[in-house]
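pls design
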């Protein structure tokens, strides 16, 4: 968001992290607390208006866009409760994941898994089914044990498996379409360390060992630069806190940080965008910079990375058993693009998550492989993403709600077994569609 100071700002222009999506809310309101929030929602509902919460604006899709009131939840932050025995904490929804790690760490606690950046808010991360990697772990929504949500009638409801269970299940992933989540109860674990091993190897080996490594390692993922024969693998092993730190020296970065947060890589991407035929050579040069690293650090320092070279992204979750077929098809698409002189400069990222029972989780009911494709932000992603999307959908893929996709309501209805239940909750708590936007309408109907 470009305007997010305390109070209300009128007719600002807002945009997402990569600036691919921009929109013009009628006003941006930053409530100081829940009472002010309730009054903003009530006023908008009374005049037949719309309200859309925004977290850190780190979605690639227009999931947080609105032409009416944008709610900036940046003032609703911090821990509000710790239940050590139950292994749960309560946290305000506007809290950034980057702040949550140290806040929990001060109490000897941690999130069991995290994605590859930590700029998101808790509310934003759960609303789009954000995930990390590891078949022993779900995404953030699977860690949600309870919620406080302000609905269109101005009521603040505390929901969990025993209280308004239908609303609880629906709100664990809601695309911000059911109300404003003000507080989240999250399952946490004891603080732990991660030993990270990052190395480059032939991509055929990376692919053939992916499922086995994903089942045996705590957290496994890999990157592949299209047009090259190299895979960059990451294997993270969980260790008790007392095992001893061996962090990266201050001037040495994680392998992909060294690249994706690097001015030289930005210049290479610019050159590739201007002269696509140079991309294979540039990808080869980028790969040469990838060497080996082993380090041990506090979990949140290892999970999260820096991403300063901007890109657009599409990511699909597929049943794990379709991984080889999906990746082979993707390689063919990339090979075709290189043959046509349309290079793909940004790497592909491949991760996993355990099946869960969250109604709109992208891993609902199945262990999943996530394959993410990217384009430098100055390049038009349309053709590449469309070809890849067709392939992934044909293999039962479901798009990350916070990333680019072209799905529609008919498709969503057949892809999610609890779709009708989610829509029934939406009809019950937001019959006037105070919390909708064009993206939610496309995916779930008006
Ligand atoms: C560089 C980068 C790296 C990323 N890495 C990963 C990754 O590793 N794994 C992954 O799965 N995704 C990843 N993402 C995607 C990102 O995690 C999601 O798009 C996430 O939703 C962004 O969180 P946010 O706080 O920015 O939410 P926003 O993008 O601001 O909002 C997302 C949705 O949440 C809703 N929302 C926000 N707060 C609330 C609230 N309090 N109550 C109700 N609704 C709310 C909004 O209305 C909107 O619908 C990445 C994105 C970027 C830009």
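designed seq:
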């Amino acid at each position: 968001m470009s305007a997010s100071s305390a109070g209300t700002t009128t007719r600002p222009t807002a945009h997402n992290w990569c600036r691919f999506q921009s929109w013009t809310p009628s006003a941006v309101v930053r409530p100081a607390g829940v009472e002010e929030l309730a009054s903003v929602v009530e006023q908008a509902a009374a005049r037949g208006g719309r309200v859309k919460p925004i977290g850190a604006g780190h979605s690639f899709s227009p999931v947080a866009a609105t032409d009416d009131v944008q709610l900036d939840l940046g003032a609703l932050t911090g821990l509000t409760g710790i239940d050590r025995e139950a292994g749960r904490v309560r946290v305000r929804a506007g809290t950034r994941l980057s702040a949550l790690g140290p806040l929990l760490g001060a109490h000897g606690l941690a999130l069991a898994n995290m994605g590859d950046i930590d700029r998101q808010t808790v509310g934003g991360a759960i609303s789009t089914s954000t995930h990390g990697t590891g078949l022993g772990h779900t995404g953030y929504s699977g860690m949600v044990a309870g919620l406080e949500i302000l609905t269109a009638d101005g009521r603040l409801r505390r929901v969990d498996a025993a209280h308004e269970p239908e609303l609880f299940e629906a709100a664990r992933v809601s695309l911000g379409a059911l109300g404003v989540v003000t507080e989240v109860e999250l399952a946490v674990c004891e603080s732990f360390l991660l030993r990270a091993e990052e190395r480059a190897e032939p991509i055929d080996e990376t692919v053939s060992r992916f499922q086995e490594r994903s089942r045996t390692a705590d957290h496994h993922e890999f990157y592949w630069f299209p047009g090259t024969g190299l895979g960059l693998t990451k294997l993270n092993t969980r260790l008790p806190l007392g095992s001893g730190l061996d962090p990266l020296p201050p001037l040495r970065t994680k392998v992909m940080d060294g690249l994706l947060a690097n001015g030289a890589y930005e210049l290479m991407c610019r050159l590739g965008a201007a002269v696509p035929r140079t991309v294979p050579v540039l990808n080869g040069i980028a790969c040469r910079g990838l060497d080996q690293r082993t380090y041990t650090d506090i979990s949140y320092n290892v999970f999260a990375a820096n991403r300063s070279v901007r890109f657009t992204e599409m990511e699909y979750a597929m049943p794990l058993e379709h991984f080889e077929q999906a990746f082979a098809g993707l390689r063919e698409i990339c090979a075709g693009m290189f043959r046509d002189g349309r290079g793909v400069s940004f790497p592909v990222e491949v991760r996993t998550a355990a099946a869960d029972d969250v109604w709109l989780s992208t891993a609902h009911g199945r262990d999943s492989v996530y394959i993410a494709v990217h384009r430098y932000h100055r390049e038009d992603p349309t053709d590449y993403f469309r070809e890849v999307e067709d392939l992934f959908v044909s293999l039962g893929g479901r798009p990350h709600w916070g990333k680019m996709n072209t799905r529609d309501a008919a498709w969503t209805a057949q892809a999610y077994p609890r779709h009708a239940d989610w829509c029934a909750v939406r009809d019950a708590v937001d019959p006037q569609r105070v919390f909708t936007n064009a993206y939610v309408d496309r995916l779930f109907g008006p």
